[in-house]
Amino acid sequence: MNGSLKGEEKLAREAIAVIRAWIDERKGGQGREGKPCLAIKFCGGCNPSIERGPLARIIRQDLGDEVSWRAAEEEVDLLLIIDGCLTACADRPEVKERAGEYLAIAGPTISFIKRMESGEKGAPRD
C-alpha cells in the first residue's frame, strides 16, 4: 500500500456517485419514503491494496444524513462490500443475504449496484 490516499479518495468519490444515483432512482416513482438503510462489510484485510478504513470514512462522511447506517448483519437496502484486494473474499452470498442490493469494491475496482440473484442463498423473495 502506498502512503497516499489519493486512490482511496477517487474510489470513494466514484462509490458516492453510484450510491447517490441509486438513492435518486429509489425516490423516483418507487413510492419509498425515508432514508435508505446502508451497511458496510469489510474483508479480513489479509493482503489489502487499498486502505479500507479511510475509504469507508470518506463515504460515510460525504453521505452524511442522506442515509441511515446499520450493522452489516442487519437487514439493509444496500450493502457496501469493501474488499482490500481483487480476491474479494467478503463478496459471498452469506454476507449479502440480508441486503436487498449490494455494491462491491475490490481493490481498485468498483461494481455497479446489483440486486441479490434469486438463486443466491438468502436472496429476498419478490
Descriptive labels:
disordered C terminus; alpha/beta; globular; 126 residues; 3 helices; six-stranded mixed beta sheet
Number of domains: 1
* Gap from first CA to last CA: 42 Å
The level of helicity is: 25-40%
Give the biggest beta sheet: 6 strands, mixed
Round the mean pLDDT to the nearest integer and report it.
87
Topology pattern, helix = H, strand = E: HEHEEHEEE
| Strand composition percent | 15-25%
Structural class, judged by helices and strands? alpha/beta
Unreliable residue stretches: 121-126
Number of helices: 3
Please give a structural write-up.
This protein has 126 residues and is an alpha/beta fold. The protein has one domain (6-115). 30% of the residues lie in helices and 22% in strands. It has 3 helices and 6 strands, in the order H-E-H-E-E-H-E-E-E. The protein has helices at residues 6-27, 52-63, 93-96; strands at residues 37-42, 68-69, 76-83, 99-106, 109-110, 114-115. Strands 1, 2, 3, 4, 5 and 6 form a 6-stranded mixed sheet that branches. The longest helix has 22 residues, at 6-27. Residues 121-126 have low confidence and may be disordered.
SSE inventory with pairings:
Layout: H1 6-27, E1 37-42, H2 52-63, E2 68-69, E3 76-83, H3 93-96, E4 99-106, E5 109-110, E6 114-115
Parallel strand pairs: 1-2, 1-3, 3-4
Antiparallel strand pairs: 4-5, 4-6
Helix pairs in contact: 1-2
In summary, what is this structure?
This protein is of the alpha/beta class and 126 residues long. The protein is built from 3 helices and 6 strands.
